[in-house]
Every structure is written in C-alpha cells, then in structure tokens.
Specification:
The chain is an alpha/beta fold and 309 residues long. The protein has helices at residues 13-32, 54-65, 86-93, 107-116, 131-142, 161-173, 189-197, 208-212, 232-239, 246-249, 272-275, 282-302, and strands spanning 43-48, 69-73, 99-103, 121-125, 152-156, 176-180, 201-205, 217-220, 257-260. The strands form two sheets. A five-stranded parallel β-sheet has the order 7-6-5-8-9. Strands 2-1-3-4 form a four-stranded parallel β-sheet, with helices on both faces. Helix 1 packs across helix 12.
C-alpha cells in the first residue's frame, strides 16, 4: 500500500522503533560486508530543486547497497524546468519508478507531488520539514541512550525546518525539546501547537543558557539556509548570541552530546573546538543518514525487512 514520508508524523512510535531497529541491522550488514540487496530491481526517482551533499549521496549509495537504482533528476534538465505541472510529472514518474524522493524549496510542492503519485513519496527536505535528517538523528541517539524518554535536547539558533521536525518528533520519542531562538526566528507556532497536542514536551525560550541547562544533547544548524542568502547580514546580527561554543556547552550536562546536521559554518552557529571536540557526534549523524534512509526505503518499497537468518 502506498505510504508517503512527508513528515516525521507520517509514522507512529512503533514504526519509528522498527525503522531504527532495521537501520541498526543494515548498518551491521554493511560493516560486515554482507550483501543485503532487499530492493533488487527497484528504482528510486530523486528530484532536487536544492543543492545537496548528504541527501543525494546517502539515497544514491543506499539504493545501490540495496540492489536497486537511483535516478537523479534536476528540474532544470527536465520538463519541470520548462513549466510542466507537478501533477503531470508525478503521474508519469510513478509509472517508471517504485518511489520518489524530492528535495524542494516549498513543502507544498512535495505535498502536491504526493497527492498525484501512486508510489511512495519521501520528503528529502523542504522549507518546513526535514524528516529524513531527524530519522537519522534519532537512530544516532538510540546508539547512545537506552531510553530516549529521559533525554533532553536543546536546540540553539534558527527555528528552521530541522527544528520543526525535532519538535514534531517529541511525541514519538518522549524526548523533551527546549528551543532557544531570538524573536522572529522561532519555530512555527502551528508546529509547536501540533506537537503539544500530541503529547510532546516543548519549551520555547530566548536565553540559550536556559535551554541548555541539564540538556543531554545540544543541536544547531546553519543560520543562513538555501533561499535565505539575501537576509544573511540581518540573520547574522539576530543570531550572533546563539553560537554553541565551549562556554555554552559547559552550562549543560557534563557528558552532553553535540549535534549538527551540516553543512557547518564554523565560528557562526558552532565553534570549531566544539564541532571537532570529543562530545561531537556530528559525523555519526551524517553516516546514519545512509542507514536510516535505507531502512525507510525498504519499508516503503518492499513492506519491510526480511527476517534475520
């Protein structure tokens, strides 16, 4: 049955746990050099309106690992770039491939594509949400904590698409999310309300020191995302006091972990010594994009992993 992954809320708590468990298994299989071609003969269409490093590489390598094929589609090289309607492209591609991943500027673009596609559609990033990133992040934390219900994550900086997704995930993981952002850069009110209505524990503050107090995880992202370049000077001024540096890290739990979804601008949202320091798990996050997305692809395309032998 068709099932899209446009938001982290498109899966429930049981499905999240299952995907993470599958991702851990797939990571072990890859590390051992064991073949795991669970999607042999399957194809993934990948549409990129925005530039990408981790999303493209992880999905493309992931499909290869699984025995399938990933097809890269730049809108400027297709009829989408010449004005073909999204719904027309969606209906045609669905007759060629087994799933579609889209990285788009507007979340509405992905939603429209999914409405007309008869195969699963995956949100590879939009202006509102980035569920694939947070899926990998949750996997990364599962590798370090026995139970996420007792984990407190402090988001520092721009309340962007990744922040929105973390907020929505709180009801699924049981984690407490504290967001520190300046006025005008806070996460969407509707997202916070939706998460709280679902049982999420969310707090929104202005002071970064208050957010990181007793935090087990500190998370940040770049201040100037793709599409925001014209606001760069204004954003740097507004967010200049929201850098995760060693001083801020010292105000959190002694063993707090530091996360960043990359790319990183050292000296802006995160200090060099923190990004490269012993409490950083940034590179594990990046690697786990591959494993988490492979587990997601197997679930959406094949209905799940075969039993372990």
């Amino acid at each position: 049955m068709k099932k899209d992954f446009l938001s982290i809320t498109d899966i429930d708590e049981y499905e999240l746990e299952s995907i993470v468990a599958d991702a851990v298994r797939l990571k072990r299989l890859k590390s051992a050099g064991t073949s795991h071609e669970f999607l042999r003969g399957k194809s993934l269409g990948m549409i990129f309106e925005k530039a990408s490093t981790r999303t493209r590489a992880s999905f493309e390598v992931g499909m290869t690992d699984l025995g399938g094929h990933a097809l890269f589609l730049n809108p400027q090289d297709t009829q989408l770039g010449r004005g073909e309607e999204i719904r027309d492209t969606a209906r045609v591609l669905a007759r060629y491939v087994d799933a579609v991943m889209i990285r788009a500027y507007a979340h509405a673009t992905i939603e429209e594509f999914a409405r007309y596609s008869t195969v699963p559609v995956i949100n590879g990033l939009s202006d509102s949400l980035h569920p694939c990133q947070v899926l990998a992040d949750i996997m990364t934390l599962h590798e370090r904590f026995d139970d996420l219900h007792d984990v407190r994550l402090a988001w520092i900086g721009d309340g962007n698409n990744v922040c929105n997704t973390w907020i929505l995930s709180s009801a699924l993981t049981g984690m407490e999310i504290a967001v520190a952002s300046p006025p005008g850069y806070r996460p969407a009110d509707a997202v916070v309300e939706q998460a709280r209505a679902a049982g999420g524990k969310i707090s929104i503050v202005t002071d970064p020191a208050k957010a990181v107090r007793d935090a087990d995880v500190l998370y940040t992202d770049i201040w100037v995302s793709m599409g925001d370049e014209q606001e760069r000077a204004e954003r740097l001024r507004a967010l200049k006091d929201y850098t995760i540096d060693s001083r801020l890290l010292e105000q959190s739990s002694p063993d707090a972990l530091v996360m960043h979804c990359l790319p990183a601008h050292r000296g802006e949202e995160i200090a060099e010594e923190v990004l490269e320091g012993p409490q950083s798990i940034v590179w594990d996050q990046a690697e786990n994009r591959l494993h988490a997305q492979k587990a997601l692809l197997v679930r959406l395309i094949a209905g799940g992993m075969p039993p372990a032998e």
